[in-house]
Every structure is written in C-alpha cells, then in structure tokens.
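pasting for ref
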Amino acid sequence: MFLKRAVCEIFTESLLDYRDKGAYLLHAFVLMPEHFHLLLTPVNASLERAIMYVKGGSARRIGVKLDFKLPVWQRGFSDHRIRDLQDYKLHFEYIGQNPVIRGLVSTADEYAWSSASGRFELDDPPQGLKPLGLLQSIGTAEAVP
C-alpha cells in the first residue's frame, strides 16, 4: 500500500489532520511498504473510533484524490495496551527502527514516512506512565501459607 509517494502523503496528511482535530494524541508512527505502526492515545473516544478515523479517513481521501475504488484496508487491527514507561519506550523505539530493521534505510531519521525522521510534530508521552519498578508488585496475588 505505501509504495507510492502520493499514498504516503495522503495517509500522513489524514493521520495528522485527525490528530490536530483532537481525535487522538500521536506519539510515533511509521508507514512500511505493506503496513503501518502507530503509537497513539485516544482522546474522548475509544481506540476503535481512533482507528476508524485513521483507516476510514485515509481510505476516503485516497479514493477521492487517486480515484481508487477498491477497499484500501483489511478489516480489523492489532493492538497492544502500553503498560508502563518501559513498554512505551520499547514500542516507540521499535516503530522508529522498523525501516532500519527491514533494511530500507541505514538510520531511522533517513526514512521519510516515519515520525523518527523529525519531519512531523508529535505529542508527548501520556501522563501517568509508571516506571517498571513501581509495577512489579502488581499482578496475581500469591497464596498465603
């Protein structure tokens, strides 16, 4: 899907437009040739609604601007709930390094369609992420002898 510059431009424009309208906070993203990764925080809506804005909004714009009639996206999506600051940093780094890992560029900042390029305004990490050390006691309770 993201092999053509025009599609990347339209998707990125749509992604940033919905962020600017307050649908979500955008922390990181990357457009790979056949998929994309996002690190976002929904605002005043569910995650499903935020993804509807991303996928539906970009599909509509791609269809209009490029006269594309077929479905743009597969149904559904995969998600991961960020648990703590370490988890956030891990996913943030993974998103930025994805093009490097795939051999598309030598360094993350070389890849134009990534937040790691430094070309795009991003939102700060969500407030309230706990350092891992504070969460280690949370989980399944141990049996009392």
